[in-house]
């Protein structure tokens, strides 16, 4: 009997030790990066740099609540351009990036939490433009503007299409109106939102060619404990209707 008790005590101590290892250090913090990608994440003052409370949007509000519920410390910075943020997150442990479109090509590069929101990929033409496009293959004959290292641009390149990549997606609105590009490959509703900010309405949706989901992407060295806590928090928020309420508040 004594041996059984000793064995049970040993197993219990081992389980406790394992559980303790799963806990995060008191000073652990995630470095969260984001960009101006309205209405999902954006600077309150519309500039290309902001921190913490100076950032809002659908994804930003959801992410804040996720971290609060998960009990994980973080800092949040909005910067420019996306290409730099993407590479930083690839290279630096405990870095996270949102809103990041989940794709099969990106899946092995990061650890993921989501989905936070859903979007569509579209080709937009200038108001009054009567371009007819049945699929991406037929669109390849036209000059297509896109956003560098964005999932839409990466997808076009994987299909053998070479878009004219801009460092700011807003630049494509002006290029479209000036006739410098024929089509703008972007995310819906982001494209329409950016166009409205530039005072442009009436853009024509020529082709909707993909449905996508937005996630939090983390450097692969991020502890699994962080990923699991955040995913659990998000799942709970979605079941409570929190995610839908935040989304409707912006749209």
TrEMBL record:
It comes from the Bacteria. It holds the Pfam family SBP_bac_3. The keyword Signal applies. Keywords: Signal. Residues 1-22 form the signal peptide. Residues 29-251 form the Solute-binding protein family 3/N-terminal domain. This is ABC transporter substrate-binding protein. It comes from Metapseudomonas boanensis.
């Amino acid at each position: 009997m004594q041996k059984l008790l000793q064995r049970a005590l040993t197993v219990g101590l081992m389980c406790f030790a394992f559980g303790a290892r799963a806990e995060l250090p008191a000073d652990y913090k995630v470095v969260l990066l984001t960009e101006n990608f309205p209405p999902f994440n954006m600077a309150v003052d519309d500039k290309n740099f902001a921190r913490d409370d100076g950032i809002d949007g659908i994804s930003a509000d959801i992410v804040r609540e996720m971290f609060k519920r998960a009990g994980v410390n973080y800092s949040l910075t909005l910067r420019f351009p996306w290409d730099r943020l993407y590479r930083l997150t690839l290279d630096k442990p405990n870095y996270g990036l949102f809103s990041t479109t989940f794709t099969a090509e990106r899946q092995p590069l990061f650890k993921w939490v989501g989905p936070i929101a859903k979007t569509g990929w579209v080709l937009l033409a200038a108001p009054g433009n009567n371009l007819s496009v049945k699929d991406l293959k037929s669109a390849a004959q036209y000059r297509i503007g896109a956003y560098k290292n964005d999932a839409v641009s990466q997808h076009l390149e994987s299909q053998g299409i070479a878009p004219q990549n801009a460092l700011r997606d807003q630049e494509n609105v002006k290029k479209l109106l000036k006739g410098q590009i024929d089509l703008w490959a972007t995310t819906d509703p982001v494209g329409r939102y950016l166009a409205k900010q530039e005072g442009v309405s009436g853009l024509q949706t020529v082709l909707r060619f993909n449905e996508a989901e937005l996630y939090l992407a983390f450097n692969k060295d991020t502890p699994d404990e962080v990923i699991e806590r955040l995913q659990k928090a998000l799942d709970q928020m979605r079941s409570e209707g929190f995610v839908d309420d935040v989304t409707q508040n912006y749209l």
